[in-house]
Every structure is written in structure tokens, then in C-alpha cells.
């Protein structure tokens, strides 16, 4: 696809009409340096899968010493650090922090993540939350709220609607790999995300631009669907892939 065509698609916001792109979104051609911001259940699981796929991953938390044993087990492609170190390390970042930490993360790491592809896996709590940030996300959409607090990031909504254990087992599922919905306003960032989704053992399903990510946020038809890619496309009303 030429640069001019990518630019046109981005400006028109017609990602949702492009499921035909998916078979052509290849795995990353070479190892990618990935910073995992928040190495809890989801971040740790996806990061481990990426290490096993050949990528270099720095796992981070406020207490990186707690991650050292995992990194040793994974070998030399895995390392640990503070969130700021991981944000500097990665050419691509996975954001998997508690949702309430989002404004501070956006402020503290802005110089490190600006211009980088950021895969956003954050979610407001399922129940019991009524903070201004959570109310904003419910009113305006989770993806749009994250974009507001992560200015300058090439944001892709990914790994946000699945359980970590389902991602971990996807590659070996008897019924087929799970379809992973992704959404972005950036066509090139979407391609990067699709390759990394494949490397984590899932099949990317392009849903649309960031506004379309409402289809797989909490309460949407794609939320924790855990379906194969063809079944997920049908559920979301997307055309079948060629």
C-alpha cells in the first residue's frame, strides 16, 4: 500500500471497511523493542509471548525487582525497569496500567512515548467506580479518553477486551486462535499492532478508527467475546476477510 493511499485512508477514517487488509498484515520482519508499561496479568502475559516470539521486551512496574525472576526465566531478550525506562526503551509500548493512573502516566512519560506506537489495553473498573475520569470514559468512550490523556501517542486500542489466560492459550486452542479487535486513527500504527497481535498468538480484526473501539469496550458486542476472527467479524457486523 502506498504512502498516499495510507494517508487517504487515515484522513477518511474508513478503517472499518478494510478487513481485507488483515491477511496482508505480516508479522514483524525483525525483532521489535517493546516497553510494557504495567506488567500485571495482561501486560506480563502478552510481554512473555512477545519474548518467545523473538522480540526484546522490557517489563516495568513501580517495583521492578518483583519482575526479575520472570525476566531471568525468559532469557536475555527480557529485562525489567521503571515505567520511564520501559517507555524510553521501547519503539512500541503496551499500556496496561490501572485506568486511574492514566493522567499521571500521560504526564510523566509524555516525552518518552511521543511519536511512538502505543497499544492501549487499559479499562475502567467493571463496577464501583464513579470518579470523574471513569465518568468521562463512559460518556466519551474509553479510547477517546485515553487519547486525551496520551497526547502525541500513535494510539491503537488492542488487547483491551480479552482475559490474559485466553490470550495465553489462544495459539493452541482446538477451536482456532481468538480474534483480537484493534482500532486506531493511524494506519501505519494499525499495521504494527496487527503484526504484534499475530506474534502473541491471536488474529487481528480491524474494527475501525478509535471512535469505533466502542464496539469492543465494556458493554459492547466485542467485549470479552473470545471468538475466532471470522466469528468476531460476524458479531461486529464487519465484512468477511478475503
UniProtKB/TrEMBL annotation:
Gene3D superfamilies the record matches: NAD(P)-binding Rossmann-like Domain (3.40.50.720)
Any GO molecular function: oxidoreductase activity
Region forming the signal peptide: 1-28
Keyword vocabulary terms for this entry: Oxidoreductase, Plasmid, Signal
InterPro entries attached to this UniProt entry: NAD(P)-bd_dom_sf, P5C_Rdtase_cat_N, STEAP_metalloreductase, TAT_signal
Domain of life: Bacteria
Residues in Pyrroline-5-carboxylate reductase catalytic N-terminal domain copies: 33-124
PANTHER family linked to this entry: DUDULIN-RELATED, REDUCTASE
UniProt cross-references to Pfam families, sorted A to Z: F420_oxidored
Name of the protein in question: NADP oxidoreductase coenzyme F420-dependent
